[in-house]
Known about the structure:
two-stranded antiparallel ribbon
Amino acid sequence: MRSAIGEEPVEGVAIEYAVAGEYDEAVALIDKYEIDLVLLDGEAQPAGGLGIARQLRDEFDEPPLLAVVVARDADRWLAAWSRADAVLKHPLNPVTTGQTVVDLLVSRAERTAPAQRAALYLYPGRRNA
Length: 129
């Protein structure tokens, strides 16, 4: 995901990454920092990104934006169930992935007070074969 987005997907929008390998690590980062966007792998094991997205949405009063990556178009309904703000399709297209991330971050910046801009990439762990 990180290589598809890059450090500066468009001029003037720099991305700072914080990486978490497990749900508890992600929650700790969200609690400690102003995380604007969480990118989740819907195929991650043992906990899938779709379930984590829904859990973050349920547990935080003001959760960060959530984007999930799905492997199949048929999984888009699961992304809707997870209440993710955006759905990305694997394999990631660097142009559309970067633009989606930028659009989400810009929309958040327009709705909230200025904050340190950061994106959280939840490391997918092991993918199913």
